[in-house]
Amino acid sequence: MEQKVKGTVKAEEYGNVLHYLIGSKTDEFLSEEENLQKIGLSTIDRDDLYLELTIMNMFVMIKQYTHWEKDEDVYTKALDQMHFLLFHQLKEYSNYDNDDIEQLHEHIFRRYDEYSDAIQNSIEENWSKTLGRALLNNIDDEIENEGTNLVAKYIEKFYNSIPNILNNI
Questions:
Q1: Count of the separate structural domains present in the chain
Q2: Cα separation, 12 vs 3, whole angstroms
Q3: Taking CA 80 as the corner, what is the angle to CA 52 and CA 9, rounded to the nearest 5 degrees?
Q4: Full DSSP string of the chain
Q5: Burial call 112-143: b when 16+ CB within 10 Å, e when fewer
Q6: pLDDT for position 104
Q7: Going by C-beta distance under 8 Å and a sequence separation of 6 or more, which residues neighbour residue 127?
Q8: From CA 162, how far away is CA 169, in angstroms rounded?
Q9: CB atoms < 10 A from the CB of 22, how many?
Q10: Among candidate residues 48, 43, 54, the one with its CA nearest the CA of residue 87
Q11: What domain range is 16 assigned to?
């Protein structure tokens, strides 16, 4: 049986709207080149940045929507639909397979936990600043990990070539 909420709107339809709002707000943020440059995000891979911003925006949506919609069954179905649409979008347009989706699912919920913990443990009164800082720290960590991996490969390649070089002297 389809569940109607707030008049004639089904929970899944709310999920569609939530997904649309998140996508449009993420696109809006990414289109502000000047701001991206100011905060050092203009050089970040667009797909990675899109995904991290989408996760943060979904977190914000969940925070607000679960306060707005009091029926737990309704908001659970709407939020499930919102996540389903993201996964479908990534499968359809970004060539994610089921393993990628499973890893992303874990990544999303890990981020949700990080964001919740950051807000809960913050002494700052403005939760949005805390969330913004957490997002930027996560992006910095990913860049640092990427950079570390590149440098580590360079070091390993050089290290492994030394015996060959020395043997040819």
A1: 1
A2: 9
A3: 115
A4: -PPEETTTEEHHHHHHHHHHHHHHHHHHHHT-HHHHHHTT-TTS-HHHHHHHHHHHHHHHHHHHHHHH---HHHHHHHHHHHHHHHHHHHHHHS---HHHHHHHHHHHHHHHHHHHHHHHH---S-HHHHHHHHHHHHHHHHHHHHHHHHHHHHHHHHHHHHHHHHHT-
A5: bebbeebbeeeeeeeeeebbeebbeebbeeeb
A6: 94
A7: 119
A8: 11
A9: 22
A10: 54
A11: 4-167
Q: What are phi and psi of 9, to 5 degrees?
A: -95, 130
User: Which segments within the chain are labelled E, that is strand?
Assistant: 4-5, 9-10
Residue 104 identity = L
Give residue-wise pLDDT tens across range 68-96.
888 899 889 999 999 999 999 999 988 89
